[in-house]
Amino acid sequence: MRQLFAPILALFFFLPFFVFAKDISLQSGTIGVVLSIKPDEIVAREPVQMYLEFKSTSPLFSFKRCNCRIKITEKNGKEILNYQLEQNENYIEDRVKEIPFIFPNTGDYLITISGESTNKVFSPFNMKEKVIVTLKHQTEGEKRWEEFKEWLISLGIPIAVVLITAGIIFRFALKKK
């Protein structure tokens, strides 16, 4: 019984953190990037946080030696962001960069993450991913209802798992008698 309690408790507390993020894995040569966009539904004219987590099979990769960029273009090719990631000693260890952004309009956007070594110790990379930006027309009451549903889901799923697990354990306990 105690062996089941810890995983159920962990699921109850940590599941809400994994429900509302869009994670995209990209790979180019020896460099990989996990692009996380929060919230997962990208809405025009509302702020999002983009997190770039760089991974490499080459121990030579670091932000200090990389001219890394993130570029965002609209469907028509108009560039709306061309951001050079800082060559900073602090990013060598964690390899994560946070970028706040607001998509101006609805539609398809192309996110391009690229880079090349300043001293030619790793190969250049170029990764692209299409994202879709929507427009949400909501009244204040609809926004509150959506927030309540998100809260309910974040609590409801773990509670349902706990109740189902408790029911299964209780059923097996009755069978043994």
Descriptive key words:
single chain, 177 residues, alpha+beta, four-stranded antiparallel beta sheet, 8 strands, flat
Describe this protein's structure.
There is one protein chain. This protein has 177 residues and is of the alpha+beta class. The protein has 3 helices and 8 strands. The protein has helices spanning 2-19, 91-94, 140-176, and strands spanning 22-28, 31-38, 47-56, 66-74, 79-84, 96-102, 107-117, 125-133. The strands form 2 sheets. The chain has a 4-stranded antiparallel sheet, with no helix packed on it. It has a 4-stranded antiparallel sheet with strand order 5-4-7-8, with no helix packed on it. A hairpin with a 7-residue loop joins strand 7 (107-117) and strand 8 (125-133). Helix 1 packs antiparallel against helix 3. The longest helix is centred in the C-terminal third of the chain and has 37 residues, at 140-176. The model is unreliable at 5-19 (pLDDT under 50).
How far apart lie the N and C ends?
Answer: 16 Å
Poorly predicted sequence stretches spanning 5 or more consecutive residues? 5-19
Mind describing the biggest β-sheet? 4 strands, antiparallel
Helix tally equals 3
Gyration radius from CA atoms, angstroms: 22 Å
Structural class: alpha+beta
Number of distinct beta strands: 8
Record the strand order, biggest sheet. Answer: 1-2-3-6
Tell me the helix content: 25-40%
Helix and strand run:
HEEEEEHEEEH
Shape: flat
β content, as a range?
Answer: 35-45%
Mean pLDDT: 79
